[in-house]
Amino acid sequence: xxxxxxDWLVVTSQTAVAALSDVPRDIRxxxxxxxxxxxxxxxxxxxxxxPETFTGEALFHKLAHIVQPDETVLFARGDLANTDHxxxxxxxxxxxxxxxxxxxxxxxxAEALAHVEALLVLSxxxxxxxxxxxxxxxxxxxxxxxxxxxxxxxxxxxxxxxxECYTMDALIQCVGEDFS
Length: 180
Prior knowledge:
By secondary structure, the chain is an alpha/beta fold. The chain has six helices and eight strands, in the order ββαβαββαβαβαβα. It has two domains: 8-98, Rossmann fold (3-Layer(aba) Sandwich); 107-179, Rossmann fold. The protein has helices at 34-42, 56-64, 107-112, 124-130, 146-155, 168-179; strands at residues 8-11, 28-31, 47-49, 73-78, 92-98, 118-121, 140-143, 160-161. A five-stranded parallel sheet has the order 3-2-1-4-5. A three-stranded parallel sheet has the order 6-7-8, sandwiched between helices. Helix 4 links the parallel strand 6 (118-121) and strand 7.
């Protein structure tokens, strides 16, 4: 842990939670969304701030109105998380707690894309990972939120659907509605 004392812990991915075992549980915690909040609460944290729109941008916007100028924020994140939003606050310590590791698709997986009708993507890094294989995909993209949707639109002109609520459950419901 990079700091002994801080006032806020900010977590923008449930994947980061596993790295927080040494973090005191008596601090104020901000979570990007419901699943991250649930993961934090499952290991003893109390989440006191979560934006209505589940994006890092919305979370840091909300924090900018609450965090005092003399307070320190510890931002526990993955290596590919957007850090532009940190600039909204005076004292943010950036803590990379996990690395996103991509992989190439196998030949069989790449060939199977030609038959995929719905491609669910949960992050801009997932969009970047699939980009080399886009000539095989001709279906509909399902992006978990507006940030991922923007990443899709940068690389594809195919249809993109985004649920109103940026959760996996809502994304699956969106696919179900389209295919029922």
